[in-house]
Amino acid sequence: MGGVMSEQLVGTVTHYFRQPSVAVVHVDEGQLNVGDEIHVLGRTTDFTEKIFSMEVDHRKVEHAGVGEEIAIQVVARTRRHDQVFRIV
Known about the structure:
This protein is mostly beta strands and about 90 residues long. It has a single domain (about 5-85), classed as Translation factors (Elongation Factor Tu (Ef-tu), domain 3, Beta Barrel). The chain contains no helices and ten strands. It is globular. The two termini are about 15 Å apart. The model has no long low-confidence stretch (mean pLDDT about 95).
């Protein structure tokens, strides 16, 4: 198959907090897991990173599914409506 990566749209950024650098993502489809590689893309946003931890309602979770809002620590600024893809 080679090293071709594909991306699956999983969610949308709803909030961003500067201190600490955290994005709140609404999971629209599929699921996100700790350890997943994500690509955050928007009008002025474009970075990839690995999820090291995520929280739902201030509780650490290993994965989140459709309809959940999760907080993920991120390396760069995100903005509302940025799209979050899971790299598969």
